[in-house]
Amino acid sequence: MPLFTYAQLTTPITLEEARTSMIALMTSLGFNGAASWQEGSWPRTLGIEIPAAVMTDLRSLAAAVTNAGFNDTAEGDFLKTFAKSHYDNDQLGAVKTRGNVVFNNTGVLLHEPGPQDIVVAAGNLRYRNIDAFSVAGGDSTTVECEAEVAGFAGNVASNTITTLVSTLAGVSVNNPGTWITRPGADQEADSKLRLRNSSKWATRSYASPEAAYEYWALSADEAITRARVDSSAPPIVKIWITGAMGEDLSVSVGKVLDLINGVTDGNVRRPLGAVLQCDQASVLEHTIVGTAYVATSHQNGAAAALEAAIRKVYATLPIGGVIIDGDRVLPFASALYPELSLYTAAMQVPGMINVQFTERLPEPDSITLNQPMGANEVAVLTTYEMTIHLVGG
């Protein structure tokens, strides 16, 4: 009989659970008063507290090492190493946003800055010009700039880069229209890397099933976080892609097609005769309004943690939802899919006592029903208005 079950090896224990185990062990060894040993006393410290702390650390280590051996449970650097050793997949790194910024010179001086000389900003997000440029008095020019820090946060809305940090007399800046030329992206999430690992097996098939196209789409560009494939009407293969927040991925569409068609590296991946169609998923806008009740002792950071938890739910919802009873629906706040429930995600925030959602668009009267979706649609949180109500002294 094994010393530990698989469930025990993969589940850490709390310090309190370890203390209970040590008290039971000491009692079984004849120390009948172990449960009443005073905190801070030598018997309590040597017989219970120290062994319990060691037991907790060892069980946490055992869980981390055991989970590191499986694609579904490995995390962080463990998953990164597992992906490389078992699937030859490298974790995709973070990407800096690039986009066109207009420099408008209403003065009389000619400015000719060199590469990386000029800093512009949207709030606390800063960008630098990639190449040298010139802008004469009374003229304007469009300059491609790159975020100083990699990540999705650099994909700001149009008309928000309006601060010229560097000094250029008479010059103002702006980023109008569809300004992004290369979307920024955070380091590849563990969930996406796991999916690329498991779907890579499909690329070994000559017929290239849908999972193969999903793997190629997710590997084509760091900005792509989700993909959906439909090959139900051969020879046409439809691919829909989206990012973490439903941002514009028109550039990424071309990268997907280039990778699968062999333009990127000369390796044609699609089967002969397959006709590819790739497009961005259609955004289904959602509004979240409600009240969160938080313990006063956890008020610092609660609002940010709650918003992050809810946005994470949206960032992982699949394109087109999931299939339930033959209908394509969005798994949302449903008892059938508690892992995707907003309520479940919100209640995991430290100090959260209760959450009440009062509005969700496009179904303002219900936040518990699964909403029908189109096969090419993805739910995106566009408006977030949660009020924090503190509870307790």
Structural class: alpha+beta
- What number is the mean pLDDT? 88
Number of beta-strand segments? 16
Query: How far do the termini sit from each other?
Result: 52 Å
Shape: globular
Strand content: 25-35%
Task: Please specify the SSE layout and strand pairing.
Elements: H1 6-9, H2 15-28, H3 42-67, H4 76-87, E1 98-105, E2 119-122, E3 125-129, E4 140-147, E5 163-164, E6 171-174, E7 180-182, H5 190-199, H6 210-220, E8 226-233, E9 236-242, H7 250-261, E10 275-280, E11 282-295, H8 302-316, E12 322-324, E13 327-330, H9 342-347, E14 352-360, E15 371-372, E16 377-391
What does it look like?
The protein has 393 residues and is α+β, with helices and mostly antiparallel strands. The chain folds into four domains: 6-67; 98-182; 190-280, 2-Layer Sandwich (GMP Synthetase, Chain A, domain 3); 284-391, no CATH class. It is 28% helix and 26% strand. The chain contains nine helices and 16 strands. The protein has helices spanning 6-9, 15-28, 42-67, 76-87, 190-199, 210-220, 250-261, 302-316, 342-347, and strands at 98-105, 119-122, 125-129, 140-147, 163-164, 171-174, 180-182, 226-233, 236-242, 275-280, 282-295, 322-324, 327-330, 352-360, 371-372, 377-391. Strand 2 and strand 3 (125-129) form a beta hairpin. The protein is globular, with a radius of gyration of 27 Å.
